[in-house]
UniProtKB/TrEMBL annotation:
<comment type="similarity">
    <text>Belongs to the short-chain dehydrogenases/reductases (SDR) family.</text>
</comment>
<dbReference type="InterPro" id="IPR020904">
    <property type="entry name" value="Sc_DH/Rdtase_CS"/>
</dbReference>
<dbReference type="InterPro" id="IPR050259">
    <property type="entry name" value="SDR"/>
</dbReference>
<dbReference type="InterPro" id="IPR002347">
    <property type="entry name" value="SDR_fam"/>
</dbReference>
<dbReference type="InterPro" id="IPR036291">
    <property type="entry name" value="NAD(P)-bd_dom_sf"/>
</dbReference>
<protein>
    <submittedName>
        <fullName>SDR family oxidoreductase</fullName>
    </submittedName>
</protein>
<dbReference type="InterPro" id="IPR057326">
    <property type="entry name" value="KR_dom"/>
</dbReference>
<feature type="domain" description="Ketoreductase">
    <location>
        <begin position="7"/>
        <end position="194"/>
    </location>
</feature>
<dbReference type="Pfam" id="PF00106">
    <property type="entry name" value="adh_short"/>
</dbReference>
Length: 241
């Protein structure tokens, strides 16, 4: 029996990429999982696929929600609690990227990046914190190596991920008094559908989604006395430039 069996998790942006892989890893440990997407059909279809792909038959729930909107995220938490009765784990994964030189970046692109990547993490923890207090649960944000390393044409994305890293670390200090653990995972290049990319055989050198799923499970199984609060993850051997 897994240490995590019958726990309940909410994964934002769980229909593909890192979110989907994390959701599957959780299901394989017997965790009941709710995933969100801005599109209801995509969320429900992915939830069905996850149950079929999992080893345990644990339940999955697909919820339409937009992390840019606090009320929408709060409703996703409420639906998770209604379906499963508790909430033990929140994975704030939903994100996007607009990449352009700052003189070319539009106001709309800036706002969408900050609202999704940074405010979305705040809304995720704000809407779930009372449930996590009850369960003495775990909140994990998916930041990026771009949260400490800036690059050209990355002003909006860097700002959002620098913010996520700082926000999550401050939240960790605020919430540990309630026995809530808070961590941020900072991946480098991952083979996902991010920014319109389609994973292919040339992505073999990159971090795979299931690698992040394994890392999440390792964090959740860590002895309660120990908290890896910020984890940088990078490919072992990227191509030479």
């Amino acid at each position: 029996m897994s240490l995590l069996e019958n726990k309940v998790a909410l994964v934002t942006g769980g229909t593909k990429g890192i979110g989907y892989a994390v959701a599957l890893a959780l299901l394989n440990e017997g965790v009941k999982v709710a995933i969100t997407s801005r599109h209801e059909k995509a969320a429900q279809d992915a939830a069905s696929e996850l149950v079929k792909a999992s080893k345990t038959g644990a339940k999955a729930l697909g919820i339409e929600a937009d992390v840019k909107d606090y009320d929408s995220q709060a409703q996703a938490v409420a639906k998770t609690l209604e379906a499963f009765g508790q909430l033990d784990i929140v994975i704030a994964n939903a994100g996007l990227g607009h990449f352009a030189a700052v003189d070319e970046l539009t106001v709309a692109q800036w706002k969408e990046t900050i609202d999704t990547n940074l405010s979305g993490v705040f809304y995720s923890i704000k809407s779930s914190v009372e449930a996590l207090k009850k369960s003495e649960g775990y909140f994990i944000s998916i930041s990026s190596l771009a949260g400490t390393n800036f690059f050209a044409k990355g002003s909006a994305y860097n700002a959002s991920k620098f913010g996520v890293t700082g926000f999550t670390q401050a939240a960790m200090l605020d919430l540990r008094q309630y026995n809530i653990k808070v961590s941020t995972i900072m991946p480098g290049s991952v083979a996902t559908h991010f920014n319109g990319h389609t994973p292919n055989s040339e992505d073999a050198w990159k971090i795979q989604g299931e690698d992040i799923g394994m890392l999440v499970i390792d964090l959740l199984k860590m002895h309660p006395r120990t908290l890896p609060s910020k984890i940088e993850v990078r490919p072992t051997m990227p191509p030479s430039k």
